[in-house]
Amino acid sequence: MEVYGLVGNPVGHSLSPPMHEAAYEATGVDARYVTFEPELDAIADAIAGADALGVAGLNVTIPFKQDVLDLVEPDPLAERIGAVNTIDFGPDGPVGYNTDAAGVTRSLERHGVEIDGGSAVVVGAGGAGRAAAFALSDSGASVHVANRTAEKATTLAAVVPGATGGGLDTLERVEDADILVNATSVGMDAPDETPVPASYLHADLAVLDAVYAPLETRLLREAADVGAVTVDGAWMLLLQGVEAFERWTGLDAPVDEMNAALRAHLA
Ligand code: ATR
């Protein structure tokens, strides 16, 4: 039996265990998925210990995604994003990936959104914003990053090919955009809050909200009201997990079963 898991602090409320265990059940992979909550200063020992114990793979979440970059061999995309959320313990040591990026592009593609040649606005320049900006740019979109702290957006834009960045006063660019990604925490546990004024939303827009609690955020509600394509945060969560499962096992992930398990726990 293989052991996979999630490392974070805290990890108590994670939806990854039921999602991955549904995948093992559907594919017949003999594995378990467990959560680990090391002390904040123990992440290096935790990764080395997992490697020594023969753990097959780990997801990594807050607050360790940046720390882990120095503890594994990151693939080029994870290195550019500056964060690792998936570790594969191979024969040559731990390799780090960032599957949040694929979570963004696969979520949009699954909803029929063409990224290549489109123009995208990413709100937020933290870990999720960085993953979204690189992912969309690598898939052929022109990217603008808008962030409350404008300097973080311009710093990020400087390393994403062709991207621009600015403060929240630049959000009016959404009016001319094809894709909007909310990569801030605005709306999380706050159904009345939105990161983007409704007046900027329009029918030719596709909106991906990384927030998944609640699933129907004010942003998605207002986007649906004007006829935009809406993609909720569970898709991102699902498809980063799908990408991790596929990297670990080399199998096609049973997306429908993983989706059902995830949504059963979100409902
Ligand atoms: P994550 O890894 O999930 O992206 P993070 O790195 O803490 O989390 O980033 C949170 C993002 O949400 C940041 O872009 C943050 O803006 P700042 O860089 O200015 O802090 C954004 N954010 C959080 N609360 C916000 C708020 N009330 N209004 C606007 N942006 C907010």
Automatic annotation (TrEMBL):
Catalytic activity field: shikimate + NADP(+) = 3-dehydroshikimate + NADPH + H(+)
Keyword Electron transport listed: no
CDD domains hit by this protein: NAD_bind_Shikimate_DH
A family per Pfam: Shikimate_dh_N
Protein's GO biological process: amino acid biosynthetic process; aromatic amino acid family biosynthetic process; chorismate biosynthetic process; shikimate metabolic process
UniProt GO MF annotations: NADP binding; shikimate 3-dehydrogenase (NADP+) activity
Domain of life: Archaea
Enzyme Commission (EC) number: 1.1.1.25
Binding site for NADP(+): G124, A125, G126, G127, A128, N147, R148, T149, A150, E151, K152, A210, G233
Quinate/shikimate 5-dehydrogenase/glutamyl-tRNA reductase domain residues: 115-185
Domain SDH C-terminal: 233-263
Binding-site positions, shikimate: S14, L15, S16, T61, N85, D100, Y212, Q240
Pathway: Metabolic intermediate biosynthesis; chorismate biosynthesis; chorismate from D-erythrose 4-phosphate and phosphoenolpyruvate: step 4/7
UniProt xrefs under InterPro entries: Aminoacid_DH-like_N_sf, NAD(P)-bd_dom_sf, SDH_C, Shikimate_DH, Shikimate_DH-bd_N, Shikimate_DH_fam, Shikm_DH/Glu-tRNA_Rdtase
Residues of the active site: K65 (proton acceptor)
Domain Shikimate dehydrogenase substrate binding N-terminal: 6-87
Keywords, alphabetical: Amino-acid biosynthesis, Aromatic amino acid biosynthesis, NADP, Oxidoreductase
Family according to the record: Belongs to the shikimate dehydrogenase family.
Biological function: Involved in the biosynthesis of the chorismate, which leads to the biosynthesis of aromatic amino acids. Catalyzes the reversible NADPH linked reduction of 3-dehydroshikimate (DHSA) to yield shikimate (SA).
Matching PANTHER family: BIFUNCTIONAL 3-DEHYDROQUINATE DEHYDRATASE_SHIKIMATE DEHYDROGENASE, CHLOROPLASTIC (PTHR21089:SF1), SHIKIMATE DEHYDROGENASE (PTHR21089)
Assembly notes: Homodimer.
Protein name: Shikimate dehydrogenase (NADP(+))
Species this chain originates from: Haloferax profundi
Higher taxonomy: Archaea, Methanobacteriati, Methanobacteriota, Stenosarchaea group, Halobacteria
